[in-house]
Amino acid sequence: MYFYMNCIISKISDPYFNLASEEYLLKSRSEDFFLLYRNEPSIIIGKHQNAFAEINWDYVNNHKIKVARRLSGGGTVYHDRGNLNFAFIRKGMEGKLVDFKKYTAPIQEALGKMGIETKFEGYNSLNLNGLKVSGNAEHVFKKRVLHHGTLLFSTDLANLEEAINISPGRYSDKAVKSVRAKVTNICESLEEELTIEEFESGIMHYFRESYPGCEPYVLDRKEIQQVNKLKADKYETWEWIFSYSPKYRISKTIELDKGNLDVMMDVDKGMIKKAGVSGSILLPEKLKELETLLPGLYHKPDQIMEAWRKVAGNLPFSQTETYTILSVFF
Q: Among 2, 61, 194, 240, whose Cα sits 20 to 30 Å from the Cα of 97?
């Protein structure tokens, strides 16, 4: 395969910036690009997923893990500085743009040069010794395609497991559901020790040496400004990350020493349309008041907490109890 591409290694670990970069290069440029980047701890959900249904809300908030929505479909992935992300952004023939094997093949070749033999299995995965090390997704825009994927190199797999460890049955919706797979880190199969930085350099070196026309590229000041605008206007916003989710119903119960709380809410475009609240944690009339306050609010922690405090008033709930109560709404 012949590649003529501008090759970028992003030094920025902000997931919102890197996702915005992909969209900017896809939609605002006509050239082909190959991009490598690593993000700080973050959960990246697919375009058509329910964000809340894909994350362990308590764990994500306690560990300050960012949640982002990408432009492509597919399932949820976890990023950290031990995970290397790659993206191909290329023009092609209409009707022939979606091709997962076409874009994973050169990645497999690069890995093979390092002694890492992977197999393309399922719809979009690269597996190593039967365990997943790469998930891939694509998005088509006019006659251009964005193909991007992950490479688990030295990711904190305990964090990965906890961040997307969800309780089944909380959410009812028609959103795309993630298919969980057993994963492993590439570094565990290396004969010689490599740092993630050396691994990243090795992937880029392979492309520049093996494919004519692959040249280094750096975004200029004007391009960075445009990416930052897209980041602020879209990728960092509650509307894109959470409100873009298909409509859903959440049903959840908690038990505290002071009593139990049962919550049901129907949410559409991020707004609570209908709510049911019951339990013994407050007097029935207080629960009814809360139930009437919720519809019309956005499914956001600050708005729900404000409604709770209006109803609970000066009742003696500790900070820990209040946080646990808030968690029943997510």
A: 240
